[in-house]
Amino acid sequence: MVWQRPLVAIILGISLLAGMAGCSSSQLPASGLTMSQANQAEMAAWVKQQTQLKNKSIRTWSEIASNSKLSLADRKVAGFAVNALSQDLSTLTGKAADRQSMLNSLLNKDSRTSKKTFGSRDLSLPSLSAVKIEEKSQLDDGKTMYRLTGTVFTSVPNKLYSVTITLRTGRSGKIEQVQMES
Predict the structure, then answer these.
(1) Is the C or the N end of the chain the one with fewer CB within 10 Å?
(2) Residue 148: burial class (beta carbons within 10 Å; 0-12, 13-18, 19+)
(3) What domains are defined for the chain?
(4) CA–CA gap between residue 15 and residue 54 (Å, rounded)
(5) pTM of structure
């Protein structure tokens, strides 16, 4: 029985040392980065990739919005898309009244005003990375319904959220109604 006590102590000591070595060595062998640094690098790369896609979408929609050959309704919808792509959409996660208020504010903005930046990095998250017209249909009395679909990204890598925006324009081309489903 006396010999069991030192054996248990040795086994326990070895187990603790092995466990501590495993915990303290949170470096990735190939890169030398800690898990936290690797996660931050992955997040930064993801946000950079999605922001590049978002900026490309903004340029495309801006060209559509300024194309005088298109109908006023098409240009207004394109302007709405530019505004939606340019804004911080954190209110999407809030109350329905806040969401509708944010959507209504996008109808009146002429430029990108709500961007939060740090240096050259855009920190407006969550944010749309892309928007496209899924469906356009003519309604009675010259009104047009547009169904836009888009993807929202956050800093969580490889995680996109779908969003659908429905816009109704009047005969004059002015956007009369906007709704969003996420």
Answers:
(1) N
(2) buried
(3) 36-181 (3.10.450)
(4) 50
(5) 0.69
